[in-house]
Design a protein that fits this description.
This protein has 432 residues and is of the alpha/beta class. Helices cover 38% and strands 12% of the residues. The chain is built from 18 helices and 11 strands. The strands form 3 sheets. It has a 5-stranded parallel sheet with strand order 2-3-4-6-5, with helices on both faces. β5, α10 and β6 form a beta-alpha-beta unit. The radius of gyration is 22 Å and the shape is globular.
C-alpha cells in the first residue's frame, strides 16, 4: 500500500522521483494521514490540502539547510511523513506517539515547537536577520494558512517584512477557510486576488511593500515545482499566494471543511465518528443552549469569539440565527477583548468564548482595557482542566495562575452544572 512512501526516509529521497512517482506518493501520503487520524484523531482537512505543495517544497529546497517554518502546525503532517516519521502514521503500534505539531525534539527538519497561530512570519524574519548577520546564504520559507493571517502578529510581521531587504519566501496557503469560515476585510482582498488570478489592485500584500505572485494550482505538483524553482534566488521578501482545497482526497472533508478541520477517530468508509455517544448532558451543549436562549431573552446580550465557535458547539446555522448579536473576530484575541470592553462601556453585556490556552494572548487587554476601566464583560474559558492537557502548547491549566493576579478580575471555577449556570447568570447580570 505504501510502496513509494516506504522508501522515503528523508527529503532528499523524493528528489529522485519523477512527476508520476511524486503524484503516486501524494496518494500514499493522503492514505497514511487518513489511516492515522481515523484511528487517533487529529487535524485532518488542513493536512490533506497541502500534500502537493509540501512535496514541491521539499523537492525544490534542501531542508534542513533551507529552513521551512510552519505556522500553527495544522498543515505539517505531510512534512512529517517525508522527514523520517512515516512509521508513526502507518504502524498501529506507533500511532498516537507523535506530536500533532512541529517539534525540534522529533526532527532536525522542525525548526520550532509551534501549536499557536500567526507566528511563522515573525519566526522566519528572526532566522533571516541571523542568517544575514552571519553572511550566510540559504532559503527561508514561511508557510502560513489564510486563516492564520487574521491574527495580529501575522499582520504585524507582514508590515515588518515590507521594510526588510533580504530574501524571504512567504507561502500563503489559501483554502478559503479557517477553523470555521473566515471573517474580516482581509478576506475580501484574498477573494479578489483569487478571482483575478492575482491581478486585482485590491492587494494587501503589495500594500505592505511585498513582491507578490499568485498560483491557482496549489494541488498540482508539477505547477508548484515549476513555480518554486523560480523563487529559489529571490533577493527580497516575496509572497507566493497559492489556492488549495481543504480536505482534498477525502470527499466528506472536501464537502464539510468545518467539521473535518480536526476530529476524533472515524470509520474511513462511512465517515462516521468512533466517538462514544454523548452523555445525556455535557458542558458544550449546556453552554450552547444557554447562549441561544440568552440571545433571545436579553436585548443587551452579545456573543464574541476569536475564531472558536466550535469550542461551544455553535454550528453555521446557530451563528446565523444569532444575527447582530454575534461577532467572530478571527484569530484576534486582543482585538476581541477590547471590542468587548467597548460593548460593556456602551451598556451591552458581552460574553467572550474561546479555549483557555488562546486567551493568554490577550492578557494586556484584559488587564488594561477591561479591568483598569472596571468594565463588566464575561470571558468563558473552555478546556481549562487537566483533562484537556494534551500538548505542551495547549495547556489550559495555566489560566488560573495567569489571570488570577489581575486587580478587578473575578475568577470563577464551577464544579457542577448548577454552579456553572449560576455563575454565568451572575456574571452577565452584574455587567455594568
Amino acid at each position: 500500500m505504501y510502496e513509494i512512501l516506504g522508501s522515503i526516509n528523508e527529503p532528499k529521497d523524493i528528489k529522485k522521483l519523477n512527476i508520476e512517482e511524486l503524484e503516486a506518493l501524494a496518494d500514499e501520503i493522503r492514505a497514511a494521514i487518513i489511516n492515522k487520524v481515523s484511528k487517533t484523531g487529529g487535524h485532518f482537512g488542513p493536512n490533506l490540502g497541502v500534500v502537493e505543495v509540501t512535496l514541491a517544497m521539499h523537492y525544490v529546497f534542501d531542508s534542513p539547510v533551507d529552513k521551512i517554518v510552519f505556522d500553527v502546525s495544522h498543515q505539517s503532517y505531510p512534512h512529517k511523513l517525508i522527514t523520517g516519521r512515516k512509521d508513526y502514521f502507518i504502524k498501529d503500534e506507533l500511532l498516537g506517539k507523535l506530536s500533532g505539531f512541529t517539534s525540534p525534539k522529533e526532527s532536525i527538519h522542525d525548526l520550532f515547537a509551534t501549536g499557536h497561530t500567526s507566528t511563522s512570519i515573525s519566526l522566519s524574519l528572526g532566522l533571516c536577520l541571523a542568517r544575514d548577520l552571519k553572511k550566510e546564504n540559504y532559503n527561508i520559507i514561511s508557510f502560513i494558512g489564510d486563516g492564520s493571517l487574521s491574527g495580529g502578529q501575522a499582520l504585524e510581521s507582514l508590515n515588518i517584512a515590507g521594510s526588510y531587504s533580504g530574501k524571504l519566501l512567504i507561502i500563503i496557503n489559501d483554502n478559503e477557510f479557517s477553523i470555521a469560515e473566515n471573517h474580516g476585510g482581509l478576506y475580501k482582498s484574498l477573494k479578489d486576488l483569487r478571482k483575478s488570478k492575482g491581478k486585482s489592485p485590491n492587494n494587501i500584500f503589495k500594500a505592505f511593500g511585498l513582491d507578490y505572485i499568485y498560483e491557482e494550482n496549489g494541488n498540482n505538483i508539477s505547477a508548484m515545482i515549476k513555480r518554486l524553482q523560480k523563487l529559489t534566488d529571490i533577493d527580497k521578501p516575496t509572497v507566493l499566494h497559492i489556492h488549495t482545497i481543504k480536505g482534498k482526497g477525502y470527499k466528506p472533508a472536501e464537502n464539510d471543511s468545518e467539521s473535518w478541520h480536526s476530529l476524533d477517530g472515524f470509520d474511513i468508509e462511512s465517515g462516521k465518528s468512533y466517538k462514544n455517544p454523548k452523555e445525556k448532558e455535557n458542558y458544550k451543549d449546556l453552554t450552547k443552549s444557554y447562549i441561544m436562549n440568552k440571545a433571545k431573552t436579553d436585548k443587551d446580550f452579545y456573543l464574541l469569539t476569536p475564531a472558536m465557535p466550535r469550542s461551544i458547539g455553535l454550528n453555521f446555522y446557530d451563528r446565523k440565527s444569532l444575527g447582530n448579536k454575534y461577532l467572530d473576530t478571527g484569530i484576534a484575541e486582543e482585538a476581541c477583548i477590547s471590542i468587548a470592553a467597548g460593548l460593556a462601556k456602551n451598556k451591552a453585556k458581552p460574553l467572550v468564548v474561546t479555549n483557555a490556552t488562546f486567551m493568554q494572548r490577550a492578557y494586556d487587554q484584559i488587564s488594561q482595557d477591561l479591568c483598569i476601566n472596571k468594565l463588566g464583560a464575561t470571558i468563558l474559558l473552555v478546556k481549562s482542566s487537566y483533562r484537556e492537557a494534551r500538548d505542551m502548547t495547549h495547556l489550559g491549566i495555566f489560566a488560573i495562575p495567569i489571570f488570577s493576579n489581575i486587580p478587578n478580575l473575578i475568577l470563577l471555577c464551577p464544579t457542577c452544572k448548577s454552579e456553572y449556570l449560576a455563575m454565568l447568570d451572575w456574571s452577565l447580570s452584574s455587567a455594568n
